């Protein structure tokens, strides 16, 4: 039966929709799920609910520092690129509850607790009856919160350079940011941060676009197959993110730019250049599969983090109790839905080997990811930098969740102690908006699929 389907596909694969999509079907490697199940689940159920939630004030205002210098090379600024500009919010556009000094915390309650903790620390410093050990532990707690287990650099929200950005006013779309600078970013991510030796060439580098013989691609994939599942997963997450961003740029392409109007919409030619197997030496469909892989990983994290958001003390705090309550209910519905997805990726197959080896691997991956999030400060185009930072931070939060299973499960019991797992507002906003981007990409694939089918 499988063979028959395969033969049928081979015969049908003359058209462009097929060249982009015919390999994007069936089971995904390294996990027990198939593309069709994800399409149906996302497009009909999850996507509309999530889209709705992301329009709420809590999720649309993201605080970000777009002015950090690039730590790796001198970058030229693309301020002049009109479509790259990010419009920050003026203070009175941001709801009071989010703006207040407690902006990082999600509720007045939690905030009070925190102040008390700080007071305790302060007391600890003068109360000689506290042992040195306890005092240090108290200090360490707050440091731990900030640093340990982070997969991503989090901007200092208190820095005067950090600004609120209204994500709905600054959509991710085609900006004209292309060419050598954009390539440098992705190149340093793949070449210097994906565990790949320089001797193994990535398939489809821009200069080898036409001349690539197929031999290099074979060498690359045999290298990748030889990697442990974790490093393979890491590469695929990065590639999936890259694919997702390219889908948005093709779906929100600047089609018309003149005196009267500026029109953004789908550009099928652009999409094909990035994903048609004939135009990409077979790479396009693989990238789309990696997008689905990324989707599964993020979905799994949402399913797992439910107990954190279920805590009665958690609020989507904007200072308007009625709305906050309604949005929290919506949020919990979405997480329940994520939980109900039948074919979850099982991350216990990751980091499951020898304990010491697994810890080392996890650390390698954490450091590589941390570095990638710093590279985002080198993206010249501000709008791309905004969405790049948001999406890497979201993915960093996903990894943090996946590797904190025990701590999250311990949450309901830890009500009187210091919570075993925390997420800052910035992490929460980036987590859901990043997943929103991936979910949008999967939905957009449906549009491109039918547009390509019409072209036949
Ligand atoms: C971080 O990324 C930069 C830029 O790609 C690279 O030069 C550097 O070696 C990386 N550092 C680590 C620790 O991976
Ligand atoms: C679509 O994208 C291609 C590049 O891939 C470009 O040459 C073309 O002008 C675009 N079409 C429109 C209508 O903007």
TrEMBL record:
<dbReference type="InterPro" id="IPR007266">
    <property type="entry name" value="Ero1"/>
</dbReference>
<dbReference type="GO" id="GO:0071949">
    <property type="term" value="F:FAD binding"/>
</dbReference>
<keyword id="KW-0560">Oxidoreductase</keyword>
<feature type="disulfide bond" description="Redox-active">
    <location>
        <begin position="381"/>
        <end position="384"/>
    </location>
</feature>
<feature type="active site" description="Nucleophile">
    <location>
        <position position="381"/>
    </location>
</feature>
<dbReference type="GO" id="GO:0015035">
    <property type="term" value="F:protein-disulfide reductase activity"/>
</dbReference>
<keyword id="KW-0325">Glycoprotein</keyword>
<dbReference type="GO" id="GO:0034975">
    <property type="term" value="P:protein folding in endoplasmic reticulum"/>
</dbReference>
<keyword id="KW-0732">Signal</keyword>
<keyword id="KW-0285">Flavoprotein</keyword>
<dbReference type="GO" id="GO:0016972">
    <property type="term" value="F:thiol oxidase activity"/>
</dbReference>
<feature type="binding site">
    <location>
        <position position="173"/>
    </location>
    <ligand>
        <name>FAD</name>
    </ligand>
</feature>
<feature type="binding site">
    <location>
        <position position="242"/>
    </location>
    <ligand>
        <name>FAD</name>
    </ligand>
</feature>
<protein>
    <recommendedName>
        <fullName>ERO1-like protein alpha</fullName>
    </recommendedName>
</protein>
<comment type="similarity">
    <text>Belongs to the EROs family.</text>
</comment>
<dbReference type="InterPro" id="IPR037192">
    <property type="entry name" value="ERO1-like_sf"/>
</dbReference>
<keyword id="KW-0249">Electron transport</keyword>
<feature type="binding site">
    <location>
        <position position="186"/>
    </location>
    <ligand>
        <name>FAD</name>
    </ligand>
</feature>
<feature type="binding site">
    <location>
        <position position="239"/>
    </location>
    <ligand>
        <name>FAD</name>
    </ligand>
</feature>
<dbReference type="Pfam" id="PF04137">
    <property type="entry name" value="ERO1"/>
</dbReference>
<keyword id="KW-0256">Endoplasmic reticulum</keyword>
<feature type="disulfide bond" description="Redox-active">
    <location>
        <begin position="79"/>
        <end position="84"/>
    </location>
</feature>
<feature type="binding site">
    <location>
        <position position="175"/>
    </location>
    <ligand>
        <name>FAD</name>
    </ligand>
</feature>
<keyword id="KW-1015">Disulfide bond</keyword>
<keyword id="KW-0676">Redox-active center</keyword>
<feature type="active site">
    <location>
        <position position="384"/>
    </location>
</feature>
<keyword id="KW-0274">FAD</keyword>
<keyword id="KW-0813">Transport</keyword>
<feature type="signal peptide">
    <location>
        <begin position="1"/>
        <end position="18"/>
    </location>
</feature>
<dbReference type="GO" id="GO:0005789">
    <property type="term" value="C:endoplasmic reticulum membrane"/>
</dbReference>
<feature type="binding site">
    <location>
        <position position="274"/>
    </location>
    <ligand>
        <name>FAD</name>
    </ligand>
</feature>
<keyword id="KW-0472">Membrane</keyword>
